[in-house]
Amino acid sequence: MEVFMKTLIVVAHPNLKDSKVNKSWLKEAEKYPDKFTIHNLYEAYPNEVIDNIEKEQKLIEEHDSLILQFPIYWFNCPSFMKKWLDDVFTDGWAYGKNGNNLENRNIGLAVTAGISENNYSESGKYKHSLKEILLPFEMTFDYCSANYKGFHAFYSAEFEATDKRIKDSIPQYINFLNSI
């Protein structure tokens, strides 16, 4: 049996160079090349055309764990992350007849949310928790027989992402990645 030892972090941030939190998180993850492979979709496919689905699938197969990392956009992932999921998680590969490449693979999400955590609650502005908003991802991973390991979130990324908060979040981010 082949044993893998690395986690693939698939990042979809349309403006990563100006990001504060995601850029800081990834900079820290880059310090552990023996543990994490970072795959930036916008860097790999600047025109947002995924021209080699098999290459993407092989990249996942070469890792034992998968993290999808993105900022919350309109209560979802950026459109390019959704396109990547639609194109890569195919029938016969991720699910369906002989589609077992995600079976028992650990998968988690690392997300940034622009506003505070209390707005993501039954009594908050959006009337739903981030866990509820991210439910379609959990359902997708369950459908593919993967092991969904939850998510790590940084709230108030838009207005309260101070250098101290970001720095303080890095150990929790790395611990989350290591727990997957």
TrEMBL record:
<dbReference type="GO" id="GO:0010181">
    <property type="term" value="F:FMN binding"/>
</dbReference>
<dbReference type="GO" id="GO:0003955">
    <property type="term" value="F:NAD(P)H dehydrogenase (quinone) activity"/>
</dbReference>
<keyword id="KW-0560">Oxidoreductase</keyword>
<feature type="domain" description="Flavodoxin-like fold">
    <location>
        <begin position="5"/>
        <end position="172"/>
    </location>
</feature>
<protein>
    <submittedName>
        <fullName>Flavodoxin family protein</fullName>
        <ecNumber>1.6.99.-</ecNumber>
    </submittedName>
</protein>
<dbReference type="InterPro" id="IPR029039">
    <property type="entry name" value="Flavoprotein-like_sf"/>
</dbReference>
<dbReference type="InterPro" id="IPR046980">
    <property type="entry name" value="KefG/KefF"/>
</dbReference>
<dbReference type="Pfam" id="PF02525">
    <property type="entry name" value="Flavodoxin_2"/>
</dbReference>
<dbReference type="GO" id="GO:0009055">
    <property type="term" value="F:electron transfer activity"/>
</dbReference>
<dbReference type="InterPro" id="IPR003680">
    <property type="entry name" value="Flavodoxin_fold"/>
</dbReference>
